[in-house]
From TrEMBL:
UniProt name for this protein: Glycosyltransferase RgtA/B/C/D-like domain-containing protein
Transmembrane spans: 13-36, 48-78, 90-112, 124-142, 154-174, 181-201, 213-232, 253-273
UniProt keywords, alphabetically: Membrane, Transmembrane, Transmembrane helix
Organism: Crocosphaera watsonii WH 0402
Keyword ATP-binding: no
This protein's record includes keyword Transport: no
Length: 275
C-alpha cells in the first residue's frame, strides 16, 4: 500500500519503491539502534550488526513487508525504553498492521509493562491494538483469494525441530546441506544467547527475553512448512536477531559479537551464492 501511494498508483514503479523501502528500512534500523544504546557504556557501532543478519539480505532480495515491520519493532522498543508511551503504542500498532507476527511483540510489551507496573503504557497499548483488529476483521470479510492456512505452519511441539535435524543428518555432505545446517544452528544459538545475556543482566533485558520467550514458543510449534528451508525460517524468525541486537551485554564475553560474526558469514555466503 505504501509503495502504491509513493508510486502514485503506477504499477511499473511499485516494485522499485518496494526495494527502496526495504533499503531505507535497513538504514533506519541502524540509526534507531544507535540511539537505543545512547545511555549505555557500550559501543554504538553495535548497530552495524544489522548488516550481519542473514534475514535482512534475504528479505531485501525476496520480500517486502518484513524489514518495514522490523523498523516498527525497533522503534517501539526504543520508545518503550525511554518511556515514550504513546509512540511505543503507535509503532507497535503500525508493526502489527504491517506483519501479523508482530502481535508477539505487542504481547511482550504488554507483559513487560505489567511486570514493571507501567500501567499508563498498558492503556496506550490496548488502544494501539484496535486498528490491527479492525483491519483484520475488514480483510476477513473481503474473502480475498490466496489465503494461507495458518495451521499448516504449526504442529506438535518440537516435531518440526526434530524433523529438521533428521533431514539435515540424512541429506548427506554437500554444500547446500551444510549451509542449511549452519543457518539453523546459528538461529538456535541466537535464541540461547538472548537467554544467557538476560540471566546476567535481567533488568536491562527483560523486554528482550519476554519477546524471545514468545518467539521460542512459536519456534517450538513450527512445522516443516517453516523449518524446511533456510529462506523461510530465516525470514520468519528474523526479529530474533533484532532482539539479540538490542540485548545489552556488559560482560567480558562478547556473546553478540561472536553470534553476529557467525551470522555475518552466513549472510556473506548467501550473497555470494544467491548472486
Amino acid at each position: 500500500m505504501v509503495s502504491y501511494v509513493l508510486a502514485f498508483g503506477n504499477p511499473s514503479l511499485i516494485p522499485y519503491f518496494m526495494v527502496g523501502i526495504n533499503a531505507l528500512s535497513i538504514l533506519i534500523i541502524v540509526a534507531i539502534t544507535n540511539l537505543y544504546f545512547k545511555s549505555d557504556n557500550v559501543s554504538k557501532f553495535q548497530s552495524l550488526f544489522t548488516l550481519c543478519i542473514p534475514g535482512v539480505w534475504m528479505v531485501l532480495s525476496l520480500g517486502t513487508a518484513d524489514l518495514f515491520s522490523s523498523v516498527f519493532l525497533i522503534a517501539s522498543f526504543y520508545c518503550y525504553r525511554y518511556e515514550q508511551y504513546r509512540l511505543t503504542a503507535l509503532f507497535i500498532s503500525l508493526g502489527c498492521l504491517t506483519r501479523e507476527t508482530l502481535l508477539i511483540v505487542w504481547f511482550a510489551l504488554f507483559l513487560t509493562s505489567l511486570i514493571q507496573k507501567r500501567f499508563k503504557q498498558i492503556t496506550y497499548l490496548l488502544y494501539g491494538l484496535i486498528p490491527p483488529i479492525l483491519w483484520t476483521v475488514y480483510i476477513t470479510f473481503l474473502d480475498l483469494p490466496g489465503k494461507v492456512r495458518v495451521k499448516d505452519n504449526f504442529g506438535f511441539p518440537f516435531l518440526g525441530i526434530i524433523n529438521k535435524f533428521i533431514t539435515i543428518l540424512t541429506s548427506g555432505i554437500n554444500g547446500r546441506n551444510l549451509f542449511e545446517a549452519y543457518m539453523f544452528i546459528v538461529l538456535l544459538l541466537s535464541f540461547a544467547a538472548i537467554l544467557v545475556i538476560y540471566l546476567k543482566h535481567r533488568k536491562l533485558n527483560l523486554l528482550m527475553q519476554i519477546g524471545n520467550g514468545f518467539y521460542s514458543v512459536m519456534f517450538i510449534f513450527s512445522s516443516m512448512t517453516i523449518m524446511g528451508y533456510y529462506l523461510d525460517y530465516s525470514r520468519v524468525f528474523m526479529d530474533v536477531y533484532f532482539l539479540l541486537l538490542l540485548s545489552i551485554n556488559l560482560t567480558k564475553i562478547p556473546y553478540k559479537t561472536i553470534l553476529f560474526s557467525a551470522s555475518g558469514i552466513g549472510s556473506l555466503a548467501f550473497l555470494i551464492l544467491h548472486s
